[in-house]
Amino acid sequence: MNPKSNTDLFIDRHLGLNDNDEKKMLQKLGFNNIDEFIHQVIPEDIQLKEKCSDVLPKGCSEIEALNELEEISNKNHKFRSLIGLGYYGTHTPKVIQRHVLENPRWYTAYTPYQAEIAQGRLEALFNFQTLICELTGFSIANASLLDEGTAASEAMTMSFSSRKNKSSNTFLVDENVFDHTFNVLLTRAKPLGIKLKRFNQKYFNNHDDVFGLLIQLPGKNGDLFDPTFLISQAHKAEIVVTSIIDPLAQVLIKPIAQFGVDIAVGSLQRFGVPMGFGGPHAAFFACTEKYKRLIPGRIVGQTLSKNGEQSLRLALQTREQHIRREKATSNICTAQSLLAIISSFYATYHGSLGLTKMAKRLVVLRRYLESLLSELGLKIPLGSRFDSFDIYCEESEKIHKEALKNGFNFRILPLGSSIEESKGFGISLDELTDKNEIHKIVNCVANGLGRKEDLTHITLNNCFQFEGIPLRNKEWMQQNVFENYQSETDLMRYIFKLAEKDFSLVDGMIPLGSCTMKLNSAAELSPISWANLSSIHPFAPANQTNGYSKIISDLEKWISDLIGLNSVSFQPNAGSQGEFAGLLAINSYFSSKGDLLRKKCLIPQSAHGTNPASAVMAGFDVVTIKCDSEGNISYEDLLNKVQEFDNTIGALMLTYPSTHGVFELKIREICDLIHSVGAFVYLDGANLNAQVGLCRPGDYGVDVCHLNLHKTFCIPHGGGGPGVGPVATSETLSPFLPSHSLKDNTFSQFGYSVSSSQHGSASILPISWMYIKMAGQRGLRKASSHAILSANYIANTLKNKFKILYKGQNNCVAHECILDFRELKSKTGLSVNDIAKRLIDYSFHAPTISWPVPETIMIEPTESESLTELNRFCEAMILISEEIEEIENNINLRNNNLISNAPHTINELIADNWNYPYSKEKAAYPYKGKFEHKFWSSVSRIDNAYGDRNLICSCNVNDKDFLDDKKCA
């Protein structure tokens, strides 16, 4: 090893505090060193003594880690995969790759709950919704879901919850729907008592107990059909009809809503997002107006600001899990925002003409390939198709081997079989296919058949023909956003124009409690663009994906060691899905033992709202546990509930450190109490950023835990997604982790899938691999220590101005602290939301507001912020406290003050009229010292209620009342 290789350790770049900063902060808190401090914060009986791990890396520079990861990625073999099945080759335009995917203004931003400082992201997502509405013909679409399989499942459960006949419990699934989608549906259906039945659309027979029906266009064999008659028959029986639709096929086909479908779902992967071994990819969900109050996920809607500016915000049921808890219609609280944004820019870049040309070209090439294969004597199936076909023949094994020899992966038929078992092959063409590739494919097939015929006499007919299904007959995507940015110059300027409206980590600290907005280093993110990682099909042969296998194996070993559990599944592609999978593992275990009474799930009232929603989805009944005055789980109430429900308890779900930001002292006793009745302890891993390297959940009694890799392990939030929520279990529960199959319902009795691909959003796992590899065991421990130190420093600095709501032992908090503003309204008329908006004037993103306690703010500084930035935040809060005192002491300021009028925009400052009883300087430049950097909110305070009363979630070219000259907001 180069003797200088370890002189520039990554961890020294990741941590915001240097040794002198650490010493100053510890002295202020009254401690001599970091170990003494941590010893006082974390309960002694769970503290992990620092020792050298045989499993974890030692830490290194980014150069070393990148070189090693490159060697690992080269173990993947980049074949041309024409497997299809929901995953296709595509080209990410470099202008989008460089300026969006690889731009920290886009990938480090948080979910746009603070709409005033998220107008750029919201516009890009609004464009995504507009695109989906233009594609499908519906007027309502959400801002993306996790993947196609889970989107179909959300459609099923929404149909189930909206059914008129509450006794109907059967959901029909067309036999041509992808089998891996069917398996995800099966997972979601079983705990809810929904029966799934396959059907053939040609022989549809209604049943009295059917509430919903799912079709797919094109189907798994490439077939298309006109579903009009089938849908009309279903509607006569009051059956809700959902269609999975390929968006590139939908470019040509009449909008699916016009066939009478109620709900349309699918994946926008082939709109510029690489396959990446399965994800992340933005799924879409569109429906009729009838279901707008039930649609899962996030919806971006138009509204007005205080000053009348056309604005955007998250609308309707945003974060409904926190309000409705176990009565929520879905546990989905995240999306695939960054991928949806990439897809929306892709559509913007190509426009309707470009997308139509691309889709027609695929049909032409598919017909050309079929004609050549027909000349070779293969029997081409009858019917209408878009880009795919299946062919069964005796020589399929030889054809597959010849394809592999020439760098191609074909679809092996029947699905899920090996090459040696194959009876045929399937091919799906894509955006990357050209005439030369068609000839290579034909040569592979001809060699497999043992034929050497000259087919040069068959020429490519560029005439577009597409029979058997109605096509679009009207212009679409005419909004200016899809017509004005098709040169690289224009698109680049539009991308940066939107980015400048958004607050991201580029602009300053995002001190959100529970969400851990830490540094996402460039070194961690750069490998996701490598072709050997981004171009791999999730269903490629195992011997082509050894690089990914190594990355996943390393992460499983490292994470297992860090949290003290046995096994890890990376299939869940969000924290909510990790919760669901962990609870299903517990449920499956008890079912395997024939213990069918274990249906009670104990959940503290402080828990994240997805916890009770996930428990209900997994088939549990929620029992709420009270919290005491210090924010801890009430051990007395827990003991009473355990005694009351005894052997009907399946699990306790808890968050540690608690949602209130403290390390509860009785955590071992709590786990022991649950184990005493034979139940399991589930840990919501949202707060692992305070534990890694300091204590291990498996050691103090946790049996199953999901982790948010987009929090603790550096995958960026991307404006609200992507995320990865792997689930880890003890040895007892390891056999019940998620499975995956390309065959229809081939699991064991207790197997299940929670995502469309085996390893979920695999292409972003290298980010966490890089973080752990570079940080190493000591770096990870130091990161957790600094996260806790920074939170306590802020709490200590602000304690004389604000009440710190909860503290643990020795007057310490964990990695986040809660400030109490519950008396603010009675004293000043202000709300905690006003404080959040005023922080924008100080160039800060607001902390988490009104959760987990109403009228509070929860602050989490993370380990990657500098002491300078921590002090700037504390100064802002202290100055705001002085502004609050001024309002409290002057009743004339109650309705017209610095805080209630915030944020102040540059347009207000340059206007001739200034009708506020304070200066412009105090409004916009409130710091007493030099203000070097100023972030401006692009709009004034947004009217939330207006947006919900007047929901507009896509840009209608005919909407002249709200929009000017067809421009999106």
UniProtKB/TrEMBL annotation:
Domain (Glycine dehydrogenase C-terminal): residue spans on this chain: 783-904
Keywords assigned by UniProt, alphabetized: Oxidoreductase, Pyridoxal phosphate
GO biological process terms held by the UniProt record: glycine decarboxylation via glycine cleavage system
Coiled coil location: none
Natural source organism: Prochlorococcus marinus subsp. pastoris (strain CCMP1986 / NIES-2087 / MED4)
SUPFAM superfamilies named in the record: PLP-dependent transferases
Record GO terms (molecular function): glycine binding; glycine dehydrogenase (decarboxylating) activity; pyridoxal phosphate binding
InterPro entries, alphabetized: GcvP, GDC-P_C, GDC-P_N, GDC_P, PyrdxlP-dep_Trfase, PyrdxlP-dep_Trfase_major, PyrdxlP-dep_Trfase_small
Cofactors: pyridoxal 5'-phosphate
Function: The glycine cleavage system catalyzes the degradation of glycine. The P protein binds the alpha-amino group of glycine through its pyridoxal phosphate cofactor; CO(2) is released and the remaining methylamine moiety is then transferred to the lipoamide cofactor of the H protein.
Stated name of the protein: glycine dehydrogenase (aminomethyl-transferring)
UniProt catalytic activity: N(6)-[(R)-lipoyl]-L-lysyl-[glycine-cleavage complex H protein] + glycine + H(+) = N(6)-[(R)-S(8)-aminomethyldihydrolipoyl]-L-lysyl-[glycine-cleavage complex H protein] + CO2
EC number: 1.4.4.2
Any one cellular-component term (Gene Ontology): cytosol
Protein family: Belongs to the GcvP family.
Domain Glycine cleavage system P-protein N-terminal: 12-443
Entries under NCBIfam families matching the protein: gcvP (TIGR00461), PRK04366.1 (NF003346)
Positions carrying N6-(pyridoxal phosphate)lysine: 711
Record note on quaternary structure: The glycine cleavage system is composed of four proteins: P, T, L and H.
